[in-house]
## 1
Amino acid sequence: MQTDQLRAQLDTLLTEARKNEEKLLRFGRLEQQLMETRALTQLVTIVLRDFRQNFDLDEVRLLLLDETGEWARVLGETHLSALHDMGLVLVEDESQLSTLYQRPLRPALVAYQTDMHGDLFVLSHLASVALLPLERQGNLIGGLHLGSRDAHRFKASNGTYFLERLSAFLVMCLENSLYFDKLEQFGLTDALTQVNNRRYFDARLKEAVNHALRHQHPLAAIMFDLDHFKQVNDQWGHQVGDTVLQQVAQVIQTVLRGSDSFARYGGEEFVALLPGADSEVASEIAQRILHAIASHKFCVCSNEPLSLTVSIGVAGIALHNVGADEVSIGKQLIKDADSALYRAKENGRNCVVVQP
């Protein structure tokens, strides 16, 4: 009889060991998948979709503290709605998170109670839940909530090693996603004006030309150059000159359409691509920008407001070049806009010239 009991206990231990081994393998595969994912959208999708499928969960919810709007910015408006439906919740105030977890911050495995957990999950027929706080350097950044219809799935007596490991790994992956996003933004954004840089524009130019030729849609480019900008730097200093460039970029963006691509091309030169706009439409927009700059009072520290003007060149592409090299056409478009800009300078500045 005693031998049978020992054998039964041994079988139980072996079964638990196999389950833990399988669980460890699943965690390992999942960690590898998360580690190889840089895009935040894909990362969140893996958490909300693959977690539920791989670990036989009935519901998964991911809460992220988004006081500054950074998570929303990185995810983008086009993805937020779908991710919200999958279980993503962006929390604007840390107090909304801190009431969910007790310190020291550790996973809480408890029976589901409607009055306590009803707002945290969509499904109302859950039996047990796991609330995993996500922390970075002792600060709450969110929470991962797992729900099951199985009352024995999450119990206070269960070990939390795997869940704590999962939480720590997920935080690391979320941080990496933000890091890679910032690297990408830094690589494609002008550090001074915070608009797109030359590298971004060159890549966007090829795409825009390809789309225009394929769909026979017009495409125009506008080149801007501040008039007598060297005098600003010489008289007021480069710090004032930097402030002027920042304000110029802001003014131009207020006139451009949402579909237009805008970048700092170098020094005091800016460039814009206008999809769907021919030279005539682009010229009208350029004129509005010309007047917006001329009427703008540039505030530079405690000094007197400055008034500046800009010279503008406009050019469009020829739509009959279907099948031609997009790179060559794009370079010619910018060359034509630059030639028009040069003539605007020769014509006395503060004017718009359209390349014939």
Note: The beta strands are 59-65, 88-91, 108-111, 128-136, 139-148, 219-226, 261-266, 269-275, 310-316, 352-354.
## 2
Amino acid sequence: MRKIMTINPKGGCGKTTLATNMASYFVQEGYNVTLADYDLQQSSMDWLKVRPEEYPDIHGIDATSGPVKAPRSTNFLIMDAPAAVHGAELAEMVKKAETLVIPVLPSPVDMRACAHFIKELLTVGKVSRKQTRMVVVANRAREYTIAYHQLEAFLGALKIPFITTLRDSQSYIRAADQGLGIFELAPSSVYTDLEQWEPLVRWLKSKRSIPA
């Protein structure tokens, strides 16, 4: 079972958007997917509640109410981590995953918060022992703005791979309202978004995203 977690203690950076869209991608690929929501707001579970019955089923778990026990048939366990997780709680959260996807927004506040978080993350035992793989995703970025170029420079300085940039697109809102991912919308309407996701899904399906 692959165990992938979206994580960043800064609220509103897109953890749920990434988690739900990863879940929809893998279920569309024919895999059995479980989506575990560790955030008290339960946004991922709310997304599942409005998911149409005619689409492939994604098993949901409210991870705030007890240990996560995914069905044995699960191929991909996607975990949506809570905000404001630090210290011992962060170490415990990281133990649950083999792959971490870290979204960051192109704003000075978010970039500084992400830098502090990554510095803390690198001290976590499982990370320092290279028992997990990490990747950074620039989220809701608008090209050719000062903040966008600052974000590019910031991510270029990290020792963690910066895999792709996802644009600020209404497609994500439209999909979320229906309990869907962008991979389940008409391809012609999300062509650019699908292109931007390709580096991330390719990395997630490769050995590079799995600890040796």
Note: The mean pLDDT is 90.
## 3
Amino acid sequence: DREIIQVTPRTSFITLTQDRPDYLAEAIASVEAQTDSDWEHLVYDNGSSDSRVIDVLRAAKVRNPDRFFFVSPGVRGPVIPALYWNILIGLSRGRYVTILDDDNRKHVGFLEQMVETLEADATIDATTCGWGYIDEIGEKREDRQDCHWNLATNISNLYLSNTIDSNAFVVRREVFDRAGQFNAEMPACEDWHFAIRLTRACRVKHLADVFVDHREHPGTRSYRISRA
């Protein structure tokens, strides 16, 4: 019998989506544009009522049949991102994992720079980067400065404020065995909670570059909280 060799991707992108077809298409396109093409992208559709979401997912599957995968049970579950992130982490095959919210984008050099740092030093467990702000239509917000809070991140700072955006890190897959996955019992701040545990259990390298576009629009939790 011939030996079957299964090739696994270097990095897994994981995305939770719900009723944001246009933003989702941009997020997927930002993955497809990566200069490091050794990736897979896993998307969980949390019961979208907009049929265009499935159209976007199916089109991405056609373009990337061997490295784009989606789960769409057709039933809307609880709005707990950690629950679905954990499901996708369990399905992922990559040596590294990174979150991409369905309304955000990764810059084309995100993987190349973030993963290269991890590949060059086996003692580094995760990398983070800076992020910039875009508006509802994807234009850079000139009134908002790029965010580099992660450069000053330590345990003391993390206890006071969430200084690492969940979209701005890449984590070695085995780190989840040490730090644990996301706490699905938390309805909010699950990424903050994970960042604290990650920093306590692992070595994190902070890069000064901006490699993530963070979209601000009325549908985000942070947008609603900031205006409450």
Note: The radius of gyration is 17 Å.
